[in-house]
Structures are given as structure tokens and as C-alpha cells.
Amino acid sequence: MKKFLHRTAAQFEAARKKAREYRLFAKTKPRKDRVMRQMLSIVEKLNRGLGVALEAVSGSPKKLRARAIFSQDKLRQLQRTMSALVPQIRYWIRTGFVASGKIISLHIPQLYAIVRGKVGKTVEFGLNWGITRVHGGYLLARLARDRHELHDKKFVLRAVEDHVAFFGKAPRAYAYDRGGYSAKNVCALRKLGVREVGLAPQGKARWAVGEAVRLRLVRERALVEAGIGTIKGSRYGFNRPAARSMAMMGACGQRAVLGFNINKLIRELAGRKNMRLSG
Prior knowledge:
- There is one protein chain.
- Helix content is 56%, strand content 11%.
- By secondary structure, it is mainly alpha-helical.
- The chain has 2 domains: 2-95, no CATH class; 128-272, Nucleotidyltransferase, domain 5, CATH 3.30.420.
């Protein structure tokens, strides 16, 4: 690795100068694209050289320890990420479109763009979560393994399956917005044991419950947004956690939900015993 650093010192310096030129002096799009192509050529050479150096380290009889093992694994992850990222950047320069599956983070390449379609928040970056509110206002959270796992029509069933796994039976009533509606999902929820299926229908379809039950379930469904907004606050830190891996992001998200549920439980216990809390 020392030989690699010594041999590529001039390339690192050239890359630094190109980055400075791009940020300070490239004012037009043609010049920006030209500087970016030159930067990519340098980065590709450095990344190939790093790959060769890492292979040499793997073949060395000397065993690594502690920090050296962590550093080697981190370098391998960065080298693999850059190998996939550079072609995506070239595609963007050539076509003007973002490549499918665009990498948005060097340290956590599993992150992705999530199209929200909301005013002021058309796109978010991170991981998909499924949040369920159970009776009493407590929350359950599930982290998606990929961007397609927890789409509404899938999560509407997965939430009830998780409820059965946790509590041994399906909820008596269940509400979800129209994103999860389909006649097939209504039947599947009834087979799982849900007696009052409150999926908001699409188009001219009718509700599967009576008017009084519909109004109650709509009110219950609206309350989940309040819980989500609370865990996203600075007190619980669900949003933008200080994490450097996908596993740690999952741990931070579950920690936020756990903190929310514990605080809610303690407040309810204190209320039953006529206690007062301050903090």
C-alpha cells in the first residue's frame, strides 16, 4: 500500500487540482463536462491501481490485525463502489439522465432515492421503512431489504403478518390508505383473520365496512402520521441518524421507535398511579 501511495501521489494531486478547477472556474456546462471527464479518467486509473494493491495485500503471507483489517475492508468497499459509480457518472454526462440504481453514498451504497411526490419533498434519499400503529398508539417498524420490498400493496399484508407473528393473532380492525387497496388484498386480509378491513378504495369501488366503522378507521389511520412525525423529530433521531452502514441505520431507526414506545408506556403507567413526570 505504501508503494501504491508513492506511485500515485502525482495522480492524487492532479485530481485535487481538477476538483478545484471544477468548483471555482468551470462556469459553463461544456467546461464542467470536460473537467468532469478528465477527473473521471484520473479516478478510474487510481481505482484500478487500488484494486491491484488490495489483491497484493490479500496474497501477502503477513497477517493483518485490528485496525488494519478494518481499513482493508473499508478500502475494498470503496473500490467496489467506485467501480460501479464511475460508469453511472459517465452515463449522466453522455445522456443527461440519471442511471438506474444510481449510487448516492460512497459509505452506504445501499441507499437509494425515494420518490415522494409531495410539495417541497418530491424526492428523499435513504431507506424505505414500514411503520404500523397498534392499539394504544404504539409503533412497529420494519426496514425494507430493498427499494421494492415495502411498496404499499405488499406492505399492507406484511404489516398484518408481522402483527400475527408478534401477538399471535391478527388485529380485529385494520386501516390503510388507497395505495394498498385491491380486491385481492381485501380477501387476503380477511383470510389472515382481520374482521374489519378498512382499505380506502380506489375509483368507484365500495368500502368493505359500514359507514360507522369506516369513520372510526379513517380517524385511526390518520393518527399514524402523528407518530411518524414524532419519531422524526430531534428527540428520537429517526431522520438523518449518525450511521455509517446500512445495519447501523436500521439500528438507529429501531432505537428511535423503541424510545418512543418506552416514553409512551412510562407516561401511561405514571398516569394510572397518579404520578407526575418531569424531564
